[in-house]
Amino acid sequence: MAVHRCRFRRACAILPPEILRRIATRGSRTQRDAALATLATDQTLRLSRATHQLLERAPRRPPLAMPEIAKQRTIYDANHRETLPGRAVRDEGSRAGKDVEVNEAYDGLGATFDFFAIVHDRNSIDDAGMHLDATVHFGRKYDNAFWNGRQMVFGDGDGDLFNRFTISLDVIGHELAHGVTGDEAKLVYLGQAGALNESISDVFGVLVKQYALGQTAAEADWLIGAGLFTSKVNGAALRSMKAPGTAFDDPVLGRDTQPSTMSGYVHTTMDNGGVHTNSGIPNHAFYLAAIALGGHAWEKAGRIWYETLRDRRLRPTSTFRQFAVLTGQHAAQLFGPLERQAVAAAWKEVGIDVGSDAGKAGAKGTGNGRGSGRGSGRGTGLRDGAGDDF
Ligand SMILES: [Zn+2]
């Protein structure tokens, strides 16, 4: 088995704790038990993440040779325990078996890998050929899915409010994109930077799905987590990038509280400053930009967002506005003034006016400065003076 790379120790779960807390107070006894058990596990994972982040500050060494782009997946079965990774049940290239979750996890990891490899010439999550592992059947009735920095983990759901968490390809793409963000911009999981971190995962999550389905921006549903809810829940999905705040409205789960513009920005101490809530604002900006640019969202809007994510001027504590300015600059560099205008208009519609800043392509040093080759030994340092003036 391949040696794990353990740099991204981050347990980023798809379900925010607020939804689970609401179920714990409003749900039936069995719904409440599953939600409380999931919350307890998630809390342990968060503590583990924080500890590992303190311990892992070593700079990254460049690989000795540029690895080939090749998928390497292994799916494990936790057999309803919470011990990772569990028993290996499917390796790269082996045939599908009868276990739906094993097959969905295998295919979802593959679709995400293919998207980043083909569209962005990225060699796995770390751009250095990281082995992709996933564990299914984690815990009993575990109502979540997460990326722990080394692998994906999927619960079966309680079967009452939630279906299996392998069901949504965009959820798998979302979680793996946390690994990409952890490798590139390292956006802290707090406040606006945390909401950007969440939004970038939603952006690449939906793009993985749209790419797999061959959908244009106009054809796509722009939902995150469609299929996760059972028919008991009044809701289409966890989030909607097209219409934030409308994804669900349910007596037990509560309602979707995502704002779509800055006027609805939620100031809270919950959920690391509302990272799963305020992500609705940059999510909607991406949706508006993708619709305005037309065609397949990954071809223009997705590339602009990806190059922004890789831009060294994007700091771990960057704000929405700083991110928005960089998207405008990358739109201009990659495509031209019309695309820059479309991106600036999208941000303006969500209440972030980047004005002429977004047009300053090249004014403060163009390009992302990260080298174009795979495994180019990108460091973590930011360039001198960059990023202070937007
Ligand atoms: Zn997330």
Essential attributes:
six-stranded mixed sheet, two-stranded antiparallel sheet, 390 residues, binds zinc ion, 10 strands, disordered C terminus, disordered N terminus, 9% strand, Elastase, domain 1, Neutral Protease, domain 2, alpha+beta, 2 domains
Summarize the structure in short.
With 390 residues, the chain is an alpha+beta fold. The chain has helices at 17-26, 29-55, 100-120, 169-183, 191-213, 271-278, 280-293, 301-310, 320-334, 337-349; strands at residues 12-13, 73-77, 87-91, 132-138, 145-147, 152-155, 223-224, 239-240, 249-250, 254-255. It contains ten helices and ten strands.
Protein topology:
Layout: E1 12-13, H1 17-26, H2 29-55, E2 73-77, E3 87-91, H3 100-120, E4 132-138, E5 145-147, E6 152-155, H4 169-183, H5 191-213, E7 223-224, E8 239-240, E9 249-250, E10 254-255, H6 271-278, H7 280-293, H8 301-310, H9 320-334, H10 337-349
Parallel strand pairs: 2-4, 4-6
Antiparallel strand pairs: 1-5, 2-3, 5-6, 7-8, 9-10
Helix pairs in contact: 1-2, 3-4, 3-5, 4-5, 5-6, 5-7, 7-10, 8-9, 9-10
Bound molecules: zinc ion (ZN).
Residues 12, 14, 174, 178, 198, 201 line the site of zinc ion (ZN).
